[in-house]
Amino acid sequence: MKLTGSQVLFKALREEKVDTIFGYPGGSVIDLYDELFHQEGIKHYLVRHEQGAVHAADGYARATGKVGVCLVTSGPGATNTVTGIANAYADSIPIVILTGQVPTHMIGKDAFQEVDITGITRPCSKHNFLVRKIDDLGRTIREAFYIAHSGRPGPVLVDIPKDILQGTLEETELFMKIHLPPEPPKEPIDEACAAALTMIRTARKPVIFAGGGVLRGKAVSELMTFANCIHAPVTASLMGLGAFPGTHPRWLGMLGMHGTYYANMAVSHCDLLIAVGVRFDDRVTSKVAEFAPHAKIIHIDIDPVSINKIVKSHVSIISDCREALQRLLSMAGGEVLLSADQTREWLEQIEKWKKAVPLSYCRSAKIKPQYVIEKLYELTRGEAIITTEVGQNQMWAAQFYRFDHPDTFISSGGLGTMGFGLPAAIGAQVAFPDRLVVDIAGDGSIQMNIQELATAVHYNLPVKVVILNNGFLGMVRQWQEMFYGRRYSQTEMKQALDFVKLAEAFGAVGLRATKPEEVEEVLRKGLETPRAVMMDFHVEPEEQVYPMVSPGAGLTDMKLGNLRRDAD
Amino acid sequence: MSIEERTITILVKNEPGVLSRVAGVFSGRGYNIKTLCVAETTNPEISRITLTSNADADFTEKIKKQLDKLVDVVDVLDYTGERFLKREMMLIGLRITPDRYAELLQAVNTFGCRIIGMQPDYYIIETSGRRSENDAVFKYFQTFDVEMMNRTGSIALPRHPQKDSA
Amino acid sequence: METIGADIVLQILQEEGVEAIFGYPGGNSLPLHDRLLGSPIRHYLTRHEQAAAHAADGYARATGRVGVCLSTSGPGATNLVTGIATAHMDSSPIVALTCQVNTSLMGRDAFQETDIIGITLPITKHSYLVHDVNNLATILRQSFKLARSGRPGPVLVDMPRDILAARCERAAPRQEAPEATVEQSPSDRQQLEKIARALNQSERPVIIMGGGVKLSNSCDLMLGLIEKGGIPFTTTMMGVGSITSGNGYDLGFIGTHGNQLANSIVHQSDFILAVGMRFSDRSTSLIDEFAPLATIAQIDIDPTSIGKNVKVAFPFVGEIRETISALVKLVERKERTPWMERIQQERETTDNCLPYKGCGKAGHFISLVQDAMPRETIAISDVGLNQIWTMRTWKARTPRSLITSGGMGTMGFSVPAAMGAKIGAPDRSVVAICGDGGFYMNIQELATISYYNIPVKIIVLNNGHLGMVRQLQDLFYESRFSTVDLGTHVDLVTVAKGFGIPARRISVDDSPEAALAAMAGAEGPYMLEVMVDPNDYVFPIIPPGHPNISMIHGKIC
């Protein structure tokens, strides 16, 4: 029996157990969409801009651990995915982007809606393919999925010309088998693990630093066992939040530019830093020469590129995080590596730092954005899936919401893409229709992909949007206040924009709070409403995110604003 | 339209990213680069890229026009055909035992290669010539125990300088 | 304050006559945005960088000047990609300024770092990464020159933050190199004579004009050529509006959604003079069966356009103004009565066989919009049915008054481009015409329009669907409507009001006088939503993969 290219494609997707696609049709993929008409078992969500489709696939992937899938047409449909692809690439998220392309004989001729998307996305994707023969289609799709989720995950684009979709192939010749070169044998890690164990046993001030790799590598329970085995405190990068419970007594909070005082102090004074699934991004290390100056560094990561790229490690274990931690634990033979006694003094010092400068803010007659997050945390009992936009909203979410479970904090870390949160929330909500999903946004960021509110309403996805509305592009304004003499250039957003009216016009529910007393009620009502809700909180316009590590300075050089409590 | 191997030489300003741009033009227009060689010319500000691609007769004119649009491209010339001398270089590393030294040396002399690396059990042969000649030389040396081989792309010069365009 | 790189940027922008730029700040653009505060250059903060790029493009298309957009690094820069690709395909001159991470951080996967030069290699005319603040002025001047010269196009300049903050000297004034006058070479002269001879001897000639005619400001010269030679003409979609006096020689535009008369006459022609057009697949349809009887002469400034898609007997690479000026002297007036009669006959049967040029009620409505607006109004269409309805019914009265995304076909182009056009041409009225699909794509720009009180008028032809795809599915996929229903649960009028823009809804069946008067009379921005039946399509069209003479006029049941 003959199958069309479109049918081959869907067959390959079914082999990969795909049941959800986010997309937007167009001329080059009209045959695929026609075939979609006949396909059961795959649900397609029509977004309102292709950027929404990629971010939704990304949010879906982060929430579920599966490969997210989006489908767009050629030309502008494909270029509209570039930011989303670069975003997934920066955060190592497994997604497959299927783009339509003009027929093979028209490629390179500047045809209507033709663009060299494989050329464009070469620098910002893990890999990409242009399918030139229908025989290659099934196999290429499957290879794309494999590449997306294996090793260090990442986005993979498959560009499919229209004539390939229209072509036919005998069902027996589907060539679905993946033809990748055999994996190079894994480097044995026993020697490195042994060296690590020796180093651990002699440490007295250890810190575990977890990153996105722990979540992607599904190593959360191993991390907990390991942390208990060495009685060490744990910190994380933005991407690692949720890898260790935010309510645990040994949790240090986030590390880095807007990390907690005590996390930054702990890393700066520790004698052993065990870095698991991190890449030592500049937001975390700040001045590299002064990062963890007293520490021996053990670096566990699956990607050899990350090892010794920014920070020199003393022991490096190139491995999947879960395997590495399991190996370490099994080599430790079940015995405790560092006892509570051995780290007691260290943990006490950390408690002193926690008491000296906890995360806090001053109450006032205006709504404080931190208060909104705290209340949100309280009312959701820390059980919501939180997505964020970028800027101050993102930092306050990371600071004031405690994540006890993995894959519940979905935020654009590496690329810092404003407009990510709402479509990512849609992706997460599609994955978990019965969970509460909340996007924490600023008034600037939420406008970027606000069209996706129509998508949420269209599919009855009850996402909640919490807008910390300060009338500014807050984070840029903060820098202008601190370093440019408060010269606010192009950061004021005071305008006639009425978010409540907008929400209702889109078919969602709109709520507003302008005084602190109104916050709890609005949150309660919003969270309980079984529909898409946008909550507009008019917050203090010129609030700063603290702590803030001065740019180019070491982690201990933090601006604390009003955070420092009186000494005990 | 017959598909043949075409040889193009491109003079470019020695700026970062130029090679990427040139390669991008080929892949964006759907052409495959078969071999590629690039180095500075006597003018350190100008590099020469020589590449080969399997394409039809139209190809050269079309790709020249596309390449000419690139700001960093200085000139594009067609070095396909009999008017040009085209050569490649090849290095062959092979394991050798004493009983075959003489045979090897004779072959090297016959073919006009050079021995550039000599360890008691491992020789490296350098050969340069037309691709077909190199292919033949390699085929012969496969009767020895070839461990590794590396070859360059083509470079070419006109037999006699002429002022015509590509 | 001492001079820093950022000041050089503003100095050169001013020198280039840039009065307005469209941008969005971020960490790595701080030094530049800070210095903007003291500058006479107006910066418009859009709500998404894609809109900044489209606005710069709209500015350029409306005025002929180079449009400028500005973003921070990382996602700010990648958000410009679609806008840059759109300008690239239509040869629109824009300069995209992207700020980059510090040179010391480059290549280390820093926060908000991306290889924007690598990403935009296929879609820019050229791009620069500034390594040294002392080269900044030269690079910027070069960028503007490249953007506007030859075949115009987008140029990107990537500027690391430390370069923008680096101390330097003010740039020395530009050295005015004397404009090299290109003498017509003897072989050029010969070639033109050959073209003129072939044209003069032809019995059924047609002139096809593309976007290049408007870009080179050669519309008046083309009109002179047409009238002197008595030659019928057509245009591509990008060429619409080149000739504004409807003078009997106009065949309408060719292509997939063009005029049947134009497609038919081109098919029968024996000589085609192609000026500033690139024989894109939308214009020619099935290339193997395009103009089978015609000898083709092609004049273009870009050698790569010539002979790329069709065999050209008389290629001519040259600047259009100069070339046409010379050509017109060599062209003779011929009466060609049989040809003109044939055209007239066909015109009578085809031009009016469908009401409102096959654009139905929506087409009629658009003509009423045009009547309600001042004469020099600029109309900017989006992509889809709305685009074809607009391009077929709006009569361009000046060359830069009808603007559309032709090559890339970018939905969401119209509203931000209209913003840019209005800012570039403040004395003219500007109307954006889009569908509901395209309207969603950059809907956030309603906030920008409201914030700056930019008086653009927006017409949303709302059929609740992705209309063009729906039409194709209805005609060629047995009405299997898959994923084209955008729903009607969103109240677009209230959305506009929520953004602070007055708005109103009517149905295409209503009498629109009051609504149009309200829109035209509004001092500030205004949005008019027009409900259209999803079964209203556009005809005639060339079915995909068919030659241009096989247009169909309706759904075949």
- What is the CATH fold-level name of the largest domain in chain B? Alpha-Beta Plaits
Rg of chain A (CA only)? 24 Å
Structural class of chain A: alpha/beta
**Number of discrete domains of chain A:** 3
Question: What is the 3D shape of chain B?
Answer: elongated
Query: What is the CATH class of the largest domain in chain A?
Result: Alpha Beta
Function (chain B): Catalyzes the conversion of 2 pyruvate molecules into acetolactate in the first common step of the biosynthetic pathway of the branched-amino acids such as leucine, isoleucine, and valine.
InterPro entries (chain B): Acetalactate_synth_ssu (IPR004789), Acetolactate_synth/TF_NikR_C (IPR027271), Acetolactate_synth_ssu_C (IPR019455), ACT-like_dom_sf (IPR045865), ACT_dom (IPR002912), AHAS_ACT (IPR039557), AHAS_small-like_ACT (IPR054480)
Pathway (chain B): Amino-acid biosynthesis; L-isoleucine biosynthesis; L-isoleucine from 2-oxobutanoate: step 1/4; Amino-acid biosynthesis; L-valine biosynthesis; L-valine from pyruvate: step 1/4
EC number (chain B): 2.2.1.6
Structure description:
Chain B: Its EC number is 2.2.1.6. Chain B: It catalyses: 2 pyruvate + H(+) = (2S)-2-acetolactate + CO2. Chain B: Keywords: Amino-acid biosynthesis, Branched-chain amino acid biosynthesis, Transferase. Chain B: Catalyzes the conversion of 2 pyruvate molecules into acetolactate in the first common step of the biosynthetic pathway of the branched-amino acids such as leucine, isoleucine, and valine. Chain B: Dimer of large and small chains. The complex is a heterotrimer of chains A (568), B (166) and C (557). Chain A has 568 residues and is of the alpha/beta class. Chain A has 3 domains: 2-173, Thiamin diphosphate (ThDP)-binding fold, Pyr/PP domains (Rossmann fold), CATH 3.40.50; 190-356, 3-Layer(aba) Sandwich (Rossmann fold); 369-546, Thiamin diphosphate (ThDP)-binding fold, Pyr/PP domains (Rossmann fold). Chain A is built from 23 helices and 22 strands. Chain B folds into 2 domains: 4-80, Alpha-Beta Plaits; 86-155, 2-Layer Sandwich (Alpha-Beta Plaits), CATH 3.30.70. Helices cover 27% and strands 42% of the residues of chain B. Chain B is built from 4 helices and 9 strands, in the order βαββαββαββαββ. In chain B, strands 5, 6, 7, 8 and 9 form a 5-stranded antiparallel beta sheet that branches. Chain B is elongated and about 60 Å long. Chain B starts with a strand and ends in an 8-residue tail after the last strand. The mean pLDDT of chain B is 90. In chain C, the strands form 3 sheets. Chain C has a 6-stranded parallel beta sheet with strand order 2-1-3-4-6-5, with helices on both faces. Chain C has a 6-stranded parallel beta sheet with strand order 9-8-7-10-11-12, sandwiched between helices. The mean pLDDT of chain C is 94. In chain C, 38% of the residues lie in helices and 15% in strands. In chain C, strand 13 (378-381), helix 17 (385-393) and strand 14 form a beta-alpha-beta unit. By secondary structure, chain C is α/β, with parallel strands linked by helices. In chain C, helix 3 (49-63) packs parallel to helix 5 and helix 16 packs across helix 17 (385-393). Chains in contact: A-B, A-C, B-C.
